[in-house]
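User: I'm putting together a teaching handout on how sequence relates to shape, and I'd like one worked example. Could you take Alpha-galactosidase from Scylla paramamosain, show the sequence you're using, and then write out its predicted structure as C-alpha coordinates right after it?

Assistant: Happy to. First the sequence, then the C-alpha coordinates directly below it.
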Amino acid sequence: MLYSCSWPFYQIYSRMEPNYTAIINTCNLWRNFDDIQDSWESVQRIIDYYGDNQDEIVANAGPGHWNDPDMLIIGNFGLSYEQSKSQMAMWAIFAAPLLMSVDLRTIRPEYKAILQNRAVIAVNQDPLGLQGKRIYKDKGIEIWARPIMPLSGIHYSYAIAFLNRRTDGTPSEISVTLRELGLANPEGYSITDLFDGVHYGIVQPDKRFKVDVNPSGVVLVRCEVAKHGAAGARAPFRPTPTDRSFRNPFHNNNNLFNNFGG
Protein backbone atom coordinates (compact mmCIF):
# COMPACT_ATOMS: atom_id res chain seq x y z
CA MET A 1 0.00 0.00 0.00
CA LEU A 2 1.27 3.46 -0.95
CA TYR A 3 0.17 6.83 0.40
CA SER A 4 -0.07 9.56 -2.24
CA CYS A 5 -0.32 13.22 -1.21
CA SER A 6 -1.46 16.27 -3.13
CA TRP A 7 -1.12 18.89 -0.42
CA PRO A 8 2.48 19.86 -1.35
CA PHE A 9 1.14 21.18 -4.66
CA TYR A 10 -1.63 23.12 -2.92
CA GLN A 11 0.93 24.66 -0.57
CA ILE A 12 3.12 25.70 -3.50
CA TYR A 13 0.07 27.06 -5.35
CA SER A 14 -0.80 29.11 -2.23
CA ARG A 15 2.79 30.41 -2.02
CA MET A 16 3.49 28.42 1.13
CA GLU A 17 6.79 26.68 1.74
CA PRO A 18 6.20 22.90 1.89
CA ASN A 19 7.70 21.12 4.88
CA TYR A 20 9.38 18.33 2.98
CA THR A 21 10.67 16.71 6.15
CA ALA A 22 7.08 16.11 7.23
CA ILE A 23 6.08 15.16 3.69
CA ILE A 24 8.81 12.53 3.41
CA ASN A 25 7.88 11.08 6.80
CA THR A 26 4.19 10.90 5.85
CA CYS A 27 3.88 10.28 2.11
CA ASN A 28 5.31 7.78 -0.33
CA LEU A 29 4.69 10.07 -3.31
CA TRP A 30 3.51 13.62 -3.68
CA ARG A 31 2.38 15.96 -6.42
CA ASN A 32 4.15 19.29 -6.75
CA PHE A 33 2.93 20.62 -10.11
CA ASP A 34 -0.12 20.86 -12.39
CA ASP A 35 -2.18 17.86 -13.51
CA ILE A 36 -0.90 16.38 -16.74
CA GLN A 37 -3.01 16.81 -19.88
CA ASP A 38 -2.96 14.59 -22.95
CA SER A 39 -0.49 16.74 -24.89
CA TRP A 40 3.22 17.16 -25.56
CA GLU A 41 2.94 20.76 -24.35
CA SER A 42 1.81 19.51 -20.94
CA VAL A 43 4.66 16.99 -20.72
CA GLN A 44 7.14 19.75 -21.59
CA ARG A 45 5.78 22.04 -18.87
CA ILE A 46 6.35 19.28 -16.31
CA ILE A 47 9.88 18.66 -17.60
CA ASP A 48 10.58 22.40 -17.34
CA TYR A 49 9.26 22.53 -13.79
CA TYR A 50 11.42 19.61 -12.70
CA GLY A 51 14.49 21.17 -14.30
CA ASP A 52 13.91 24.74 -13.15
CA ASN A 53 13.20 23.66 -9.56
CA GLN A 54 15.58 20.72 -9.25
CA ASP A 55 17.70 22.29 -6.54
CA GLU A 56 14.65 22.36 -4.26
CA ILE A 57 12.97 19.06 -5.11
CA VAL A 58 15.62 16.50 -6.14
CA ALA A 59 17.05 16.09 -2.63
CA ASN A 60 13.62 15.07 -1.31
CA ALA A 61 13.40 11.94 -3.47
CA GLY A 62 14.76 8.59 -2.31
CA PRO A 63 13.82 4.96 -1.75
CA GLY A 64 10.21 4.87 -0.55
CA HIS A 65 9.44 8.56 -1.18
CA TRP A 66 9.21 10.20 -4.60
CA ASN A 67 8.26 13.36 -6.41
CA ASP A 68 5.27 12.55 -8.62
CA PRO A 69 5.07 14.35 -11.99
CA ASP A 70 1.70 12.67 -12.67
CA MET A 71 0.61 9.90 -15.02
CA LEU A 72 2.17 8.50 -18.14
CA ILE A 73 -0.02 9.41 -21.13
CA ILE A 74 1.76 7.00 -23.49
CA GLY A 75 -0.67 5.20 -25.79
CA ASN A 76 -3.43 7.79 -25.55
CA PHE A 77 -3.94 10.43 -28.25
CA GLY A 78 -1.71 13.39 -27.44
CA LEU A 79 1.82 12.07 -27.95
CA SER A 80 3.66 10.87 -31.04
CA TYR A 81 5.86 7.78 -30.90
CA GLU A 82 9.01 9.87 -30.32
CA GLN A 83 7.30 12.00 -27.67
CA SER A 84 6.10 8.86 -25.90
CA LYS A 85 9.68 7.58 -25.64
CA SER A 86 10.66 11.00 -24.32
CA GLN A 87 8.08 10.88 -21.54
CA MET A 88 9.08 7.34 -20.56
CA ALA A 89 12.76 8.28 -20.49
CA MET A 90 12.22 11.45 -18.47
CA TRP A 91 9.99 9.75 -15.91
CA ALA A 92 12.79 7.17 -15.50
CA ILE A 93 15.31 9.97 -14.95
CA PHE A 94 12.91 11.56 -12.43
CA ALA A 95 12.66 8.28 -10.45
CA ALA A 96 8.92 8.90 -10.82
CA PRO A 97 6.02 6.52 -10.15
CA LEU A 98 5.01 4.86 -13.45
CA LEU A 99 1.21 5.09 -13.46
CA MET A 100 -0.37 4.30 -16.82
CA SER A 101 -3.53 6.04 -18.05
CA VAL A 102 -4.08 4.13 -21.31
CA ASP A 103 -6.84 1.71 -22.22
CA LEU A 104 -4.97 -1.61 -22.26
CA ARG A 105 -7.63 -3.16 -24.48
CA THR A 106 -6.80 -0.90 -27.41
CA ILE A 107 -3.17 0.20 -26.96
CA ARG A 108 -1.05 -0.14 -30.11
CA PRO A 109 1.92 -2.56 -29.97
CA GLU A 110 4.62 0.11 -30.41
CA TYR A 111 3.33 2.08 -27.41
CA LYS A 112 2.91 -1.08 -25.35
CA ALA A 113 6.57 -1.87 -26.09
CA ILE A 114 7.62 1.51 -24.67
CA LEU A 115 5.71 0.90 -21.46
CA GLN A 116 7.17 -2.61 -21.14
CA ASN A 117 10.78 -1.66 -21.86
CA ARG A 118 12.60 -3.51 -19.10
CA ALA A 119 15.85 -1.62 -19.50
CA VAL A 120 14.13 1.74 -19.01
CA ILE A 121 12.06 0.39 -16.12
CA ALA A 122 15.29 -0.83 -14.49
CA VAL A 123 16.59 2.76 -14.53
CA ASN A 124 13.33 3.99 -13.03
CA GLN A 125 13.50 1.34 -10.30
CA ASP A 126 17.22 1.69 -9.57
CA PRO A 127 17.83 0.79 -5.89
CA LEU A 128 19.80 3.96 -5.16
CA GLY A 129 16.54 5.86 -5.59
CA LEU A 130 18.32 9.09 -6.59
CA GLN A 131 16.44 11.50 -8.85
CA GLY A 132 18.28 12.83 -11.89
CA LYS A 133 19.08 16.42 -12.81
CA ARG A 134 19.21 18.55 -15.92
CA ILE A 135 22.90 19.25 -16.52
CA TYR A 136 22.72 21.07 -19.86
CA LYS A 137 20.15 23.23 -21.66
CA ASP A 138 20.71 25.30 -24.77
CA LYS A 139 18.75 26.02 -27.96
CA GLY A 140 16.25 23.22 -27.49
CA ILE A 141 18.79 20.57 -26.50
CA GLU A 142 18.84 19.21 -22.95
CA ILE A 143 20.96 16.59 -21.22
CA TRP A 144 19.77 14.95 -18.01
CA ALA A 145 21.79 12.62 -15.78
CA ARG A 146 20.72 10.20 -13.08
CA PRO A 147 23.20 8.33 -10.82
CA ILE A 148 22.47 4.59 -10.75
CA MET A 149 24.00 1.28 -9.69
CA PRO A 150 26.50 -0.27 -9.97
CA LEU A 151 29.29 1.78 -8.40
CA SER A 152 33.04 1.33 -8.60
CA GLY A 153 34.81 3.06 -5.74
CA ILE A 154 33.74 6.71 -5.85
CA HIS A 155 32.37 6.45 -9.39
CA TYR A 156 28.68 6.08 -10.09
CA SER A 157 27.09 4.59 -13.15
CA TYR A 158 24.65 6.95 -14.87
CA ALA A 159 21.57 7.01 -17.03
CA ILE A 160 21.90 9.90 -19.49
CA ALA A 161 18.96 11.31 -21.44
CA PHE A 162 19.69 13.43 -24.52
CA LEU A 163 16.42 15.30 -25.10
CA ASN A 164 15.67 17.21 -28.32
CA ARG A 165 13.01 19.87 -27.76
CA ARG A 166 13.45 21.26 -31.28
CA THR A 167 10.70 20.96 -33.90
CA ASP A 168 12.68 21.77 -37.06
CA GLY A 169 11.97 18.42 -38.72
CA THR A 170 15.48 16.95 -38.69
CA PRO A 171 17.43 14.98 -36.08
CA SER A 172 20.03 16.87 -34.05
CA GLU A 173 23.52 15.52 -33.47
CA ILE A 174 24.78 15.89 -29.91
CA SER A 175 28.52 15.46 -29.42
CA VAL A 176 30.08 15.34 -25.97
CA THR A 177 32.78 13.61 -23.97
CA LEU A 178 31.75 11.67 -20.90
CA ARG A 179 34.10 13.77 -18.80
CA GLU A 180 32.15 16.88 -19.81
CA LEU A 181 29.11 15.15 -18.31
CA GLY A 182 30.97 14.51 -15.06
CA LEU A 183 31.72 10.83 -15.81
CA ALA A 184 35.41 10.42 -14.99
CA ASN A 185 35.96 6.74 -14.20
CA PRO A 186 39.48 6.07 -15.60
CA GLU A 187 38.45 2.60 -16.79
CA GLY A 188 35.64 4.07 -18.89
CA TYR A 189 31.96 3.21 -19.15
CA SER A 190 30.02 0.46 -20.87
CA ILE A 191 27.32 2.29 -22.84
CA THR A 192 24.01 0.89 -24.10
CA ASP A 193 21.11 2.63 -25.83
CA LEU A 194 18.06 1.56 -23.83
CA PHE A 195 15.48 1.95 -26.61
CA ASP A 196 17.44 0.65 -29.61
CA GLY A 197 19.52 -1.88 -27.68
CA VAL A 198 22.74 -0.73 -29.39
CA HIS A 199 25.85 -1.43 -27.30
CA TYR A 200 28.71 1.01 -27.87
CA GLY A 201 31.32 -0.96 -25.92
CA ILE A 202 33.66 0.63 -23.39
CA VAL A 203 33.93 4.39 -23.92
CA GLN A 204 36.73 6.32 -22.21
CA PRO A 205 35.96 9.61 -20.42
CA ASP A 206 37.83 11.79 -22.93
CA LYS A 207 36.55 10.11 -26.10
CA ARG A 208 33.86 12.05 -27.94
CA PHE A 209 30.46 10.36 -27.92
CA LYS A 210 27.80 11.26 -30.49
CA VAL A 211 24.07 10.58 -30.72
CA ASP A 212 21.42 11.64 -33.22
CA VAL A 213 18.16 12.65 -31.54
CA ASN A 214 14.90 12.99 -33.43
CA PRO A 215 12.76 16.14 -33.03
CA SER A 216 10.79 15.98 -29.75
CA GLY A 217 12.59 12.69 -29.15
CA VAL A 218 15.17 11.25 -26.80
CA VAL A 219 18.20 9.00 -26.69
CA LEU A 220 18.50 7.29 -23.31
CA VAL A 221 21.77 5.51 -22.58
CA ARG A 222 23.01 3.52 -19.64
CA CYS A 223 26.65 4.22 -18.76
CA GLU A 224 27.93 1.53 -16.42
CA VAL A 225 31.29 1.95 -14.76
CA ALA A 226 33.81 -0.43 -16.31
CA LYS A 227 36.30 -2.21 -14.07
CA HIS A 228 39.98 -2.91 -14.62
CA GLY A 229 40.49 -5.50 -17.34
CA ALA A 230 36.96 -5.12 -18.75
CA ALA A 231 37.97 -3.51 -22.06
CA GLY A 232 35.98 -5.04 -24.89
CA ALA A 233 33.56 -6.75 -22.51
CA ARG A 234 30.23 -5.60 -21.22
CA ALA A 235 30.01 -5.24 -17.49
CA PRO A 236 26.87 -7.03 -16.25
CA PHE A 237 24.24 -5.07 -14.37
CA ARG A 238 23.56 -6.62 -10.96
CA PRO A 239 21.72 -4.10 -8.78
CA THR A 240 22.07 -4.63 -5.05
CA PRO A 241 20.43 -2.84 -2.13
CA THR A 242 22.51 -0.05 -0.69
CA ASP A 243 22.33 2.76 1.79
CA ARG A 244 22.46 6.48 0.97
CA SER A 245 25.82 7.24 2.57
CA PHE A 246 27.62 7.88 -0.74
CA ARG A 247 28.98 11.24 -1.79
CA ASN A 248 26.67 13.62 -3.64
CA PRO A 249 27.18 12.71 -7.32
CA PHE A 250 26.32 16.27 -8.39
CA HIS A 251 28.53 18.06 -5.88
CA ASN A 252 31.19 19.24 -8.34
CA ASN A 253 29.20 19.56 -11.55
CA ASN A 254 28.15 23.20 -11.40
CA ASN A 255 30.49 24.42 -14.13
CA LEU A 256 31.03 21.35 -16.31
CA PHE A 257 28.21 21.53 -18.78
CA ASN A 258 28.39 24.74 -20.78
CA ASN A 259 31.09 24.35 -23.40
CA PHE A 260 30.91 20.87 -24.95
CA GLY A 261 30.07 20.05 -28.57
CA GLY A 262 31.72 20.56 -31.89
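A couple of points you could highlight for students: Confidence is low (pLDDT under 50) at residues 231-262. The first helix runs from residue 7 to 13.
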